[in-house]
């Protein structure tokens, strides 16, 4: 990500459907401006432990989303993403996430990649399953925001399972 992506990144976060599964404080525009600067700084780290990448539209190279792989030790990593509503049905997020998972397993020697999301976040769960992830846990009333408790689920894929799918 670059500073040029900041306004589009903030705009994605301000969509009401995007905000459904996030704490109000996490969706404040200034929070996303801070995150943009953090992601830029993390990209300069050596060794690199966070890969927050911009997803650009092929035709006009405009920022339409982001996908991230965060190394967490013991050959494990978490993955997350966010995409402009206008492009969510185009399969671009799956393409970007697949490329990052592939990179993690083949170049970073990761053993397990996981995602944690609100259990009602069907698009995120569908994406995870499309990546070959299986649900490992359902955590009841694990997060509290918007004046209610939310369940979360953890989905993961192992390197061996990923490679077997590719053959």
Automatic annotation (TrEMBL):
GO MF annotation, one: acyltransferase activity, transferring groups other than amino-acyl groups
Residue span, N-acetyltransferase domain: 7-160
Keyword field: Transferase
InterPro entries referenced in this protein's UniProt entry, alphabetically: Acyl_CoA_acyltransferase (IPR016181), GNAT_dom (IPR000182), N-acetyltransferase (IPR051531)
Lineage top rank: taxon: Bacteria
Pfam families reported for this sequence: Acetyltransf_3
Protein name: Putative acetyltransferase
Organism for this UniProt entry: Vibrio sinaloensis DSM 21326
């Amino acid at each position: 990500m670059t500073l040029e992506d900041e306004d589009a990144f903030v705009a994605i976060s301000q969509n009401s459907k995007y905000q459904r599964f996030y704490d109000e404080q996490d969706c404040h525009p200034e929070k996303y401006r801070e995150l943009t600067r953090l992601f830029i700084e993390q990209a300069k780290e050596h060794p690199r432990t966070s890969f927050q990448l911009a997803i650009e539209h092929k035709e006009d190279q405009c920022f339409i989303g982001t996908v991230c792989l965060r190394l967490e030790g013991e050959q494990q990593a978490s993955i997350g993403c966010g995409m402009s509503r206008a492009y969510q049905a185009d399969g671009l997020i799956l393409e970007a996430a697949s490329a990052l998972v592939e990179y993690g397993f083949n170049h970073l020697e990761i053993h397990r990649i996981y995602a944690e999301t609100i259990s009602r976040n069907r698009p995120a769960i569908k994406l995870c399953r499309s990546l070959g992830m299986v649900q490992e846990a359902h955590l009841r009333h694990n997060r509290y925001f918007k004046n209610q408790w939310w369940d979360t689920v953890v989905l993961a894929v192992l390197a061996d399972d990923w490679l077997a799918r590719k053959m």
